[in-house]
Structure formats: C-alpha cells, structure tokens
C-alpha cells in the first residue's frame, strides 16, 4: 500500500469535487478520533470515557455518581457501568455516604491516580485549546457548519457526550499482558 504526503493529498483534493472534499474531511475526523482512541487503549489500557471519569473524580474529590454524570454529560446508568469496570480493575472504589445512605461517592485508588498521572490527554483537550484560540466569529462559523452537517446526516436526535471517541461509551477495555498491548472489546 502506497502512502501519499499531505502536500500530494492537498494537490489531489484541489482536483476533486467539493462533496468529495467534505467526505474526505469527515473521514479524517473519524479516523483521527479512532486512532487516538486505539492509542489511548494501547498506552494506558483504558478508553476515553474511562479516562474522562477518572479525571472528573480526581478534579472533584469526593463526588457522587450523579455529580460525575453531570460533569461529563453522561447518564447515571452509563457512568455506573463505566465505574463498575474501573472498580474491577481497582482504579476506583465507591463508598456509601455516612450522611445520606442514598448517595454513593467515588474515589480514585492509588493505581487510579498513577494511571491518570501517566495517561495521555484526551483528544478533545487538544481540540479545545486550539478552538479557544480562534476568534469568536471563527468559533461561531465552525459550530454553525458542524450543526448543519449533523442536520444533513439526520443525526441531530443522537445523544452525544462532549468527548471525541468512537464506539459505545461503556465498552470494555481489557489489557492483554503479552507485552504492553491492550485490546478494547465490547
């Protein structure tokens, strides 16, 4: 399989129809997200949603499941499923509140803190930094264009969390200890 440089690709794109450029650009976004997700699983052994939850627990300290769900814009059921997996890996633990027995607080274990300290940044953080550097009119133009693309793809009704990741948010990531490889499985 032959690879072409970005310069060659840009020259090729100059000779194609605008719709093809749009489709190629969308595919690049999907691939970048997918590749980053795979790299995260390979290097840290966790998925992007798992990393997001670990960061939320770290940043908020004593936090309930509902507070985590609000922070990361996921349902409590999804957060609970992800926490179940993190707890099985001994990255988090949960404790029922002494003041209100209906509430359960999540905490990082030492292993969870270590993993979080060594994990790469989520893809959306790179995007957020660059997006914030844009002028307001550029931000509005990008948002408007993306919202229009979503509408054109009849995807406005789909539930989505503010994270760049592919696949189910509550999928399992299992480490295979044959080398440093980790495999994500549903």
- Under CATH, the homologous superfamily reads Winged helix-like DNA-binding domain superfamily/Winged helix DNA-binding domain
Total tally of structural domains = 1
Mean pLDDT: 82
Helical amount among residues, as a percent range? 55-70%
What would you report as the Rg, rounded to the nearest angstrom? 19 Å
Structural class: mainly alpha
Count the DSSP helices: 8
Tell me the name of the CATH class: Mainly Alpha
Oligomer: single chain
Biggest sheet details: 3 strands, antiparallel
- Taking strands numbered 1, 2, ... along the chain, how are they ordered across the largest sheet? 1-3-2
* Helix and strand run: HHHEHHEEHHHEE
- Report the span from N to C terminus: 30 Å
CATH topology: Arc Repressor Mutant, subunit A
Strand content: 5-15%
- Principal-axes shape call: elongated
What does this molecule look like?
This protein has 186 residues and is mainly alpha-helical. It has eight helices and five strands, in the order αααβααββαααββ. The protein has a three-stranded antiparallel β-sheet. A hairpin with a 6-residue loop joins strand 4 and strand 5. Helix 4 crosses helix 5. The longest helix has 27 residues. The C terminus is likely disordered.
Task: Annotate the secondary structure layout.
Layout: H1 6-14, H2 18-44, H3 48-60, E1 63-64, H4 65-72, H5 76-88, E2 92-96, E3 104-108, H6 110-118, H7 123-132, H8 136-152, E4 172-175, E5 182-185
Antiparallel strand pairs: 1-3, 2-3, 4-5
Helix pairs in contact: 4-5
């Amino acid at each position: 399989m032959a690879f072409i440089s970005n310069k060659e690709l840009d020259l090729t794109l100059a000779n194609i129809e605008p719709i093809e450029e749009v489709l190629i650009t969308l595919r690049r976004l999907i691939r970048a997200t997918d590749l980053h997700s795979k790299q995260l699983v390979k290097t840290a052994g966790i998925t992007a949603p798992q990393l997001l939850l670990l960061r939320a627990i770290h940043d908020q300290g004593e936090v309930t499941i509902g507070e985590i769900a609000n922070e990361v814009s996921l349902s409590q059921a999804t957060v609970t499923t992800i926490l179940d997996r993190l707890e099985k890996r001994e990255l988090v633990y949960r404790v029922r509140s002494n003041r209100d027995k209906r509430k359960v607080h999540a905490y990082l274990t030492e292993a969870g803190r270590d993993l979080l300290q060594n994990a790469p940044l989520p893809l959306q953080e790179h995007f957020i930094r660059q997006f914030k550097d844009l002028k307001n009119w550029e931000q509005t133009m990008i948002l408007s264009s993306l919202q229009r693309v979503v509408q054109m793809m009849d995807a406005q009704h789909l539930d989505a969390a503010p994270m760049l990741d592919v696949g189910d948010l509550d999928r399992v990531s299992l480490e295979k200890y044959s080398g440093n490889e980790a495999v994500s499985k549903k």
